[in-house]
Structure formats: C-alpha cells, structure tokens
Design a protein that fits this description.
By secondary structure, the chain is mainly α. The chain folds into 2 domains: 72 residues, no CATH class; 43 residues. 77% of the residues lie in helices and 9% in strands. It is built from 5 helices and 2 strands. It has a two-stranded antiparallel sheet. It comes from Lentibacter algarum. Pfam families: LapA_dom (PF06305). Keywords: Cell membrane, Membrane, Transmembrane, Transmembrane helix.
Length: 116
C-alpha cells in the first residue's frame, strides 16, 4: 500500500512539474477590469507566472470545498455529540443499577427489598 502511495505521489509531482514548466510565462492579474478601475480610482494588479495562478486557483477551490463540507456536516457532528452524551448518561445509569444490585447479591432479592 505504501508503494502505491509513493507511485501516486511521484506521478502527481511529475504532472505538476510539467504544468509548471509549460506555463512559466508571466501574466498580469487585475483586481478590477480596467474601465471599472479607472472609474473608481482603485486598481490593483500583480504579475505572476501562470502556473502559480493555476496552483493558487486549485488550492483556493480545495479550501472552499473543505469549508463548505465542514459547514454542511455540522448537523451530523451535533447529532453525534448528542448521542455520545446520551450514551454516557445511560452507561452511568447502568453502572449505578449494577452496583446497586450487587449489594444484595441477586437482582430478584434487590427488587423484593425495594418493594417492601
């Protein structure tokens, strides 16, 4: 299994390096279109290699997907926490019942003593 992981990572590294070498040209990223930047008086631009822009886009997409899933699964985590609390309460009650019946040695005798 470890070998498969290393082979996969090596193939992924080769693919990423190939994309980086094929897209090494510098591109200009603008925050706003030129007409809107002139109208508002605020414009920001940066020059980066294209592969950096591609990798940043991939990472931003992954991050947004992880956050979206974390928010979507909140109800499942809350329900699991509620179930854990209920299980803990029931285990405590079961332990209390078991220790109460062991004092008398027999559950039937414990029930008869409680009834009288």
């Amino acid at each position: 299994m470890r070998l498969i992981r290393y082979v996969f990572l090596a193939i992924l590294a080769v693919c990423l390096i190939t994309v980086a070498l094929a897209n090494a040209d510098v591109v200009t990223l603008n925050l706003l279109p030129e007409a809107l930047a002139q109208a508002t008086g605020y414009g920001f631009s940066i020059e980066l290699p294209l592969f950096v822009v591609i990798f940043i886009g991939i990472l931003a997409g992954l991050l947004m997907g992880f956050v979206w899933e974390w928010l979507r699964e909140h109800k499942h985590r809350a329900e699991a926490a509620r179930h854990r609390g209920e299980v803990k309460k029931l285990e405590g009650e079961l332990k209390r019942i078991k220790t109460g019946s062991e004092e008398h040695g027999d559950e039937v005798l414990a029930l008869l003593e409680k009834a009288s």
